[in-house]
Amino acid sequence: MHSETADDIKRHFDVVAEGLRSDMQGMGEALRSEIRAVDEKGDRKSDDLKRHFDVVGDGLRSDMQGMGEALRSEIRAVDEKGDRKSDDLKRHFDVVADGLRSEIHAVDEKGDRRFDDLKRHFDVVGESLRSDIRLVAEGVVSLDEKFTQEFVTVREEIREQIGEVKSLLRVSYDDLDRRVKPS
Q1: Per-residue pLDDT tens for 7-17?
Q2: Helix axes 83-110, 116-180, angle to 10 degrees
Q3: What does the angle CA 62 – CA 64 – CA 68 come to, to the nearest 5 degrees?
Q4: 103 contacts 60 by C-beta, under 8 angstroms
Q5: pLDDT digits (tens, 9 = 90+) for 88-103
Q6: CA pair distance 155, 160, nearest whole angstrom
Q7: So what's the pLDDT on residue 165?
Q8: Domain residues of the chain, as ranges?
């Protein structure tokens, strides 16, 4: 009897296990179907957001190109007017950069951070903006190099003049020593 009970329990367990397997397969199919639906919805959302960021990116790129041209013009003016205007340009550039950072931050906050593809797409747009900013920065570096060369030239002229003054002083002191000290 003990053997029959153990066999009955095993059979009962097998029946229950088979029923659970069947239920799990059904649930698995239902969950897969739901996952596919959510994935398709996410894809549509991602595509919509990518299109939106493309439009925003194109607008920002256009704005940056316009700002880049304006900044290049200001850099040429700074070059002509000297060091005083260079400080004004730096302050203006900081204001423009802060505005751009604010705009980029606002656009980033609107995005759905869960979509990695969208982040990569925005990085491409950001790299394009960095390229425009690099052009402006190269203009500022060029201006700095011109000022550095001018300072080097002025220092050399001052050194030459100091050398001449020292020579004149030496001659004067030698003459004074001869007069004061009898030979």
Answers
A1: 888 899 889 88
A2: 160
A3: 120
A4: yes
A5: 657 877 887 787 788 7
A6: 9
A7: 92
A8: 2-180
